[in-house]
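Methods — Computational structure assignment.
A single polypeptide chain was analysed. Its primary sequence is given first, followed by the predicted tertiary structure written as C-alpha cells.
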Amino acid sequence: MIEYTCDVAVIGAGPAGLAAASSAREAGAEKVWLIERDCEPGGILQQCIHPGFGLAYFDEELTGPEYAARFYDKAVDLGVQFSFDTTVLAIEKGNILRCLSPRGESLINAKSIVLAMGCRERTRGNLIIAGSRPAGVITAGAAQRMINIQNQMIGNKVLILGSGDIGMIMARRLRLEGVEVVGVVEILPYLSGLTRNKLQCLDDFDIPLLLSHTVTRVEGYPRVEAVYVAAVDEKNDPVLASEERIECDTLLLSVGLIPENELSRNAGIELDAVTGGPVVDSDLQTSVPGIFCCGNVLHVNDLVDHVSVESELAGENAALYALGKLPSDSKLIPVQAGHMVRYVCPSVIRQRSGKSTLYFRVTKPAKHVDLQISDGTKIVWMKSHLRVNPGEMEAVCIPTADLVGPEITINVLPQ
C-alpha cells in the first residue's frame, strides 16, 4: 500500500473544495492535496449550464462550468495537487485518509483535513409516496445531468414535486426543450427556493405553482401515466377529498438536499440535528481537532458565491492549523437559534479580534422584521429587513472581541 503525506487534504473538488484548497495554499500550506471521486473537477457546477453564478463573488454573471473553471485554474496556478477518480473510504484516527482508486489503495497522512463532499438529493424513498414503482420518477439533479451532460431527455409531460431551486430551474430547462411542464407542486404554503428563480423560471414561462399541495400516489406501469395531487391541512396531511388526477409521464422530485456526511459520522464528528452537517466553530473546525468543514456538506447553501467565501475561510484555517499557527485558547461562545430562526452556522464563536460571519435561515416567511443578535447582556447587532424567507439564507458579520456571553442568540422579531 502506498502512503503519502501532506499539510492539508481536501475531500471533494466541487466549488467548496476548489476554494478551500486555493485558500490553504495562499495561507502558507506547502502541500495541499485535493481528492475527488469523479474524473474531473467542478462537482455539481458542471451540469449547471444556466447563468446566474458569480454575481456576488465576481460581480458578473457566469454559467456553472465557467464559475468552476475560474477556481480550478486558480488552484492549478497555486500548485494544488489533484487526485481524480479517487474515493476516500474512511478518515482514520490521526487524520489519515484511506483512499481507493484504479491504481489501488493508498493512505494519505494529513496534518489537517477539509471536508467538502457536498450533498445529495432526497429521493422517493425518503418521501414514501404510495403507488406503483414505474419508470419516470426521477430527482431534479439526476434529470439535469441527463439532459445537460448525457444529452438524454427524461419525458414529454412532467409534473414537478417541490419548489426547490433545482426543480424550478429544471422547469425552465424542460420548457426550453419543448417539454410540457404541467406544474410545480409544493407541500409548504410558501416557496422553498429563491424568489428570483420563481420569477425567471416559473412566472416567465407561465408554469403554475401550487402551494399547500402534495403528490399522494403514482399511477402507471411500466411508465408513469398519472399522479394524484391533493391539498394539505395545517399539519401537512393530505385532504383526500381534494385529490385530483393529473396525467403525466414523468414525476420530477425537488424535495430537498442531504449533506454527504457518512465519512464525518464514521470519523466520530458531532453532527447537527437540524442541518445534518457537522457542528463547527467560527474557524469552521469540527469536534475532531484538525478537521474542518465547508459548503453544502456543512449546511445547504442557496448561492455558490456564499459557498466560495465560506470555504476560503475553512481552507485558510486548515492551513494555519497544519502550520501550528491557529489559536486554540480562545473563549468559546455558543450561538443559539432564537425566535423564528431554524438554525445558525457556526454554532460556536471563538472570541478573538476580528469578525465572524453567521449564516441562518428563518422558520417561515415574514415581512417588516428586525434581525437581532444579543449576547445575554445587550443587543450587539440589529438590522431591519423588508422580508425574510426560509428559501433564502441570511448572513450577518459581527465583531467578536467585545462579546460577553455566556451565549449569543439570533432572533427575528416583528417590527
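Note: The mean pLDDT is 95.
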